Amino acid sequence: MLAASKKDNEMDKTLVSRLQALEPLMWINPGLGPTASVQVPVRPEQVAEAEKNWRLLGPLLQHCFADLQHSGGVIASELTEATDLATAMGKAPGRYFVKGDHALPVAGSVKARGGVYEVFLHALSLARQLGLIAPDATPSELASDAVRKKFGGFTVAVGSTGNLGLSVGIAARALGFRAVVHMSADAKPWKVTRLRRHGVDVVQHQADYGTAVASARQQAQADSTIYFVDDERSELLFFGYSAAAAELRDQLTERQVPVDANHPLFLYLPCGIGGAPGGIAYGLKQVFGDHAHCFFVEPAQSPCALVQLASGLKSVVTVYDIGLTNQTEADGMAVAEVSQFVAQVMQPLLSGVYTVADDDLFRWLALAQEHAGLQLEPSAAACLGGPQMLLSTAEGQGYLAQHGLDACIGQGTHVMWATGGSLVPQDEYQGFLQKGCALMV
Ligand SMILES: Cc1ncc(COP(=O)(O)O)c(C=O)c1O
């Protein structure tokens, strides 16, 4: 076993050993504080602003994407009660839902919420800056051949493990931009093929996600016609995701699912760089306050948010620092170093992080198909293990006791955030399923 490096000085040695042994575990965040008193570098009003911006973009989005024709340009996913699936996963009392971002329109993953938002807001601001539209023009005015033609002289670039690239690439091409996606070595070939079909230039790096992002950032810095979507630092991405909280609130209200001191809400959010789960969790804490208990999930080989938060925020800590490889089948979560921006925001807001073994991702992916008819990719299946981790581990039970939730846990609601999968090609998906079924016998 690898020795702990000097960077993990401040991380509990037992925790480091368990992470190095790749043991799926739950870590409870000692930094969690009351929502009302947190001091973080973003503001709740930014969530409301994002909700407003999404509404303003609606007609333009409807114009640009065939799959938004019937939703009035709204990018939203279904909330599905998943009692059978939860039972198959070893259900305890409470209600269980899957938030179906695996089937989000436009990009088939949670990344549609961030990538589309940032690219469309950038387009609006560029068009105003270039005088292509009046300062008070509505976004719909971007839907003209003249604007498209002008945008053809500009590039939108991004570094990605795959799904953000799909979202940003598709959005940029829909508006007429040139699009360049820098992909990490983990990116699945079908995502590369799909992007190229949309006319996106794909640069494939034989290196990890951090290197792909750094390379994209460097190229953009040298060329003023390139706009770089910075997954490691972008507030626009973060707030694009955050608007999902209001969507969930409305769906729970519609189903008369209460969320209050006696009806806690538990959320399980797959985490890579942290932008998507961080943005959603930040939004949820604004909507539900302390009654929302947000947990990230990460692959056992890539627990980047966990190692950073458990070490404190004084210096950057990566999964490599404790000898992990960052090799996982969950390509969307193959990230060695969490966004420092997200780590700062989540430090007082996150309830905890649990880790998952790759084999379990395939088992759960197969259960999701069998018991709920959901087509998930491995990263998304990670959300399904949350309730068991919370209810069955000593750490999870400790959390419930510490927050006085033992008595009302039977009235709790668990939302498993399924973040991607509907665009996975059938042959690839059948391979995932077969692997999951084989692991279950
Ligand atoms: C399917 C899926 N789930 C979760 C994530 C994690 O999102 P983030 O990297 O913003 O933490 C990703 C990222 O690409 C993803 O593709």
From TrEMBL:
Q: What is its EC number?
A: 4.3.1.18
Spell out the SUPFAM superfamilies in the cross-references: Tryptophan synthase beta subunit-like PLP-dependent enzymes
Q: Which InterPro entries match?
A: D_Ser_am_lyase, Ser/Thr_Dehydratase, TrpB-like_PALP, TrpB-like_PALP_sf
Q: Which GO terms describe its molecular function?
A: D-serine ammonia-lyase activity
Q: Which cofactor does it need?
A: pyridoxal 5'-phosphate
Q: Which UniProt keywords apply?
A: Lyase, Plasmid, Pyridoxal phosphate
Question: Which is an annotated Pfam family here?
Answer: PALP
According to the lineage, what is the superkingdom?
Answer: Bacteria
The protein's annotated catalytic reaction(s) are: D-serine = pyruvate + NH4(+)
Q: Where is the Tryptophan synthase beta chain-like PALP domain?
A: 80-386
Entry keyword Lyase = yes
Tell me the enzyme class: lyase
Q: Which family does it belong to?
A: Belongs to the serine/threonine dehydratase family. DsdA subfamily.
What is this protein's record name?
Answer: Probable D-serine dehydratase
Please tell me the species this chain comes from. Aliisedimentitalea scapharcae
